[in-house]
Design a protein that fits this description.
The protein has about 50 residues and is mainly α. The protein is built from 2 helices and no strands.
């Protein structure tokens, strides 16, 4: 089993043992991480030069 599999397994155990409020908080946190990842890899718009 590689490191990625053990991390997934740990996440499943944590999620399975979390209370409803904790699960909601974990879900919100995961969504924020996904949004940050998507933002990091999104191409940035090129700015036009103000002076020509």
């Amino acid at each position: 089993m590689d490191d990625s599999d053990s991390q997934k397994q740990l996440a499943i155990v944590i999620a399975g043992s979390a209370s409803r409020a904790e699960a909601d908080a974990l879900r919100d946190w995961a969504r924020l991480l996904i949004d940050l990842k998507d933002e990091k890899f999104r191409p940035q718009p090129r700015h036009e030069k103000r002076f020509r």
